[in-house]
């Protein structure tokens, strides 16, 4: 390795450390996404007096489940904004998949009207394809997982993506 290569490598490592510190600062003075999510939930007026379990014994991590569930959407994302939208859609569809069929169909129709205010047929077709694909993935790969997602915290993107999920213990 030449001197120039070492200098470039040292600059790259310094830049990476600086970016890592900036991400931590954006998350809340070094607090993890999980700590921020727990704080947010404890402050929620809807969850007053509720007990929280970070990682219940014998249960798979819902953050890993959701990332696996949303993988086809995430594979198409090119930046953190589209990743956040993909995760949000996947979580919405996950929770709707747990509803009884009649309620689920009504919820999906409402979602289409709320998220697609325009009458663009292409947007509607794309959304319908994504929802159908996710519903099929839930049915095929996660049929026994009935845990609803109460809240989530998303940060980073790509390899630095971090997802913290607050699920129900069972449903």
User: Tally of extended strands?
Assistant: 2
* Termini gap: 57 Å
| Number of separate domains | 2
Unreliable runs: none
* Main sheet: strand order: 1-2
- As a percent range, the share of helical residues equals 55-70%
| Assembly level | single chain
Tertiary shape: globular
Secondary-structure element string? HHHHHHHEE
**In this structure, how is the largest beta sheet organized?**
2 strands, antiparallel
Structural class: mainly alpha
Strand content: 5-15%
Mean pLDDT over the residues: 81
Specify the number of helices.
7
Over all CA atoms, what is the radius of gyration?
19 Å
Describe this structure in words.
The radius of gyration is 19 Å and the shape is globular. The protein contains 7 helices and 2 strands, in the order αααααααββ. The chain has 171 residues and is mainly α. The protein has a two-stranded antiparallel sheet.
